[in-house]
Amino acid sequence: LFYLLIILVVAGLVPSARLASYDLPAVQAFDAAFGMRAITNVVLIMALLGLMTVWNATFFAGIRVLEGMASEGLIDGKWILRRDPQQSRVAPVLLMFLACMVGALIGRPLLLPIVSVAGLVVTLLFLFVCIACLVRRRRQDLVRPDPSANDGPGTGSVVGLGPFGQAHPGF
């Protein structure tokens, strides 16, 4: 909700042509509109905290993915798997740390292709799941759900608009 409010306020404060010329649009729009450095600093700190939460979640999710791949035998688990559930392994943490640092040092030239490919993959996965559901629905031996159990009109709308919610990484 905070980010939505920031977008609405910034869009209303500064004309779009001027906003497009800024290096940090949200921060500089608040600075131009209010002229108070304190408000600008709050927006900057909130943006930094938002980035840190995303980095933290990605970091620990990457460690869990490595452990999951090792437990399924997709990669060598000698350095990844834990013998004791209470014990932390150093190798996956260091590997994710190095990957994050390399990504941060390379920056935008590395991140834009990754985001583009990830958006395409998520959209294709959504398409394949929809196709699989349609194929399964046509099979006669499946038990049909009760049509009187309505999930509401919003469910189909949200699911149907999923691929269109992809944001272009250049924006």
List the secondary-structure elements in sequence, H or E.
HHHHHHH
Quick check: average pLDDT? 76
Summarize the biggest pleated sheet.
none
Strand content: under 5%
Q: Give the number of helices.
A: 7
**Outline:** extended
Global Rg: 23 Å
- Give the terminus-to-terminus CA distance: 20 Å
Which regions contain 5 or more consecutive residues with pLDDT less than 50? 166-171
Number of distinct beta strands: 0
The portion of residues assigned to helices is 55-70%
User: Structural class given helices, strands, pairing?
Assistant: mainly alpha
Task: Tell me what the structure shows.
The longest helix has 35 residues, at 37-71. This protein is extended. By secondary structure, it is an all-alpha fold. The chain has helices spanning 2-13, 16-20, 25-34, 37-71, 90-106, 108-138, 153-160. The chain has seven helices and no strands.
Describe the SSE topology.
Layout: H1 2-13, H2 16-20, H3 25-34, H4 37-71, H5 90-106, H6 108-138, H7 153-160
Helix pairs in contact: 1-3, 3-4, 4-5
Descriptors:
mainly alpha, 171 residues, 7 helices
Short description:
It is built from seven helices and no strands.
